[in-house]
Amino acid sequence: MDLKQLNAFIAIAELQSFSAAAKTTGLSQPSLSRQLKQLETEIGVVLVDRYHRPLQLTEAGQFFYDKVSAVLTELKTVISMTQRLSMPSTALNIGFVPSVLYGLLPEVIATLKHNNSNSGRSTNSSTDIEVNLKDISSYQQIEALKTGEIDVGFSRFAHQDAWIQQILLRHERYVVALPKAHPLADVNEQRLINLANSRLILYHQTHLPALQPDTVGQNNTFSLAQSVTEPLLHLFAQHNITPLMTTKVSDLQVALGLVAAGEGITLVPASLQTVRTEQISYQRLIHENVTSPIYLHTLKDFIHPKIPDLLNAIYQVYERRGITYRRQQFV
């Protein structure tokens, strides 16, 4: 059994066609068919039902596909990491979610470059750092770290992945964004219960991980907060509140555009309260636990040499801004 056979099988399983799989793998159809036959002969199992169109996997073939595709994905990650270890990049590629860019990220990058420039002058050598920023969702960042597309990512969500390590940088308070004409637009301290009758605009593409039912008690039922995975609705559910009306949009900018147009309200991290201030009123929420976390994550087995410098720049900015934090390092 070799990688060529496994890749041929994966292509056939996913495309359900010998001709399409041949184009993808760059093999001729006879060669592709031969690779599959050799694999089936070696393990002694028929993997593909050739008498259906489109092609279908046998029950054993489906089991084999589920297991071997995960192994091949892990192998590709190992190969990518090995290549990067042998030829480390001098550039630092940073992934971020848009809400972080409106916050302190620009100041962090400026601090990182300033520190790096001063270090170069003190050693009489050029150490200018190249930083590349990429707008990428929280879950997409995990795959991007594995492939080497990014070296480190700023995210709003925790992840459980064997390849990834993660640091919680801080919690950022949410504020409520209301149209200037909204009856509550001038109320300086807002309560979630008072917002429940307004249309809530939802914009997160990433949801919280689904929780298992409580094992405490005989009924084994979900609490309201446990059963809600949409992040904004989850915040309301933590206070046993369900908004009467919601609208789902594709991203944060669209959500704020609808608020500006008077189509509803939303909750955003406090760093965004400088956006569209002519049409939007941002007001503080009294609930101290209504926050949005900011995480920094990278690979467990490959840490870009400039990531410690990035962390130091982050903590410098927090100290200048008087932000409470707990200093951490990747291991």
From TrEMBL:
HTH lysR-type domain span: 1-58
* Protein name from the UniProt record: LysR family transcriptional regulator
Per its UniProt record, what InterPro entries does this chain match? Answer: LysR_HTH_N, LysR_subst-bd, WH-like_DNA-bd_sf, WH_DNA-bd_sf
Superkingdom is Bacteria
Organism lineage string: Bacteria, Pseudomonadati, Pseudomonadota, Gammaproteobacteria, Moraxellales
Name the keywords, alphabetized.
DNA-binding, Transcription, Transcription regulation
PROSITE patterns, from UniProt? HTH_LYSR (PS50931)
Write out the GO MF terms.
Answer: DNA binding; DNA-binding transcription factor activity
Give the organism the record lists.
Psychrobacter frigidicola
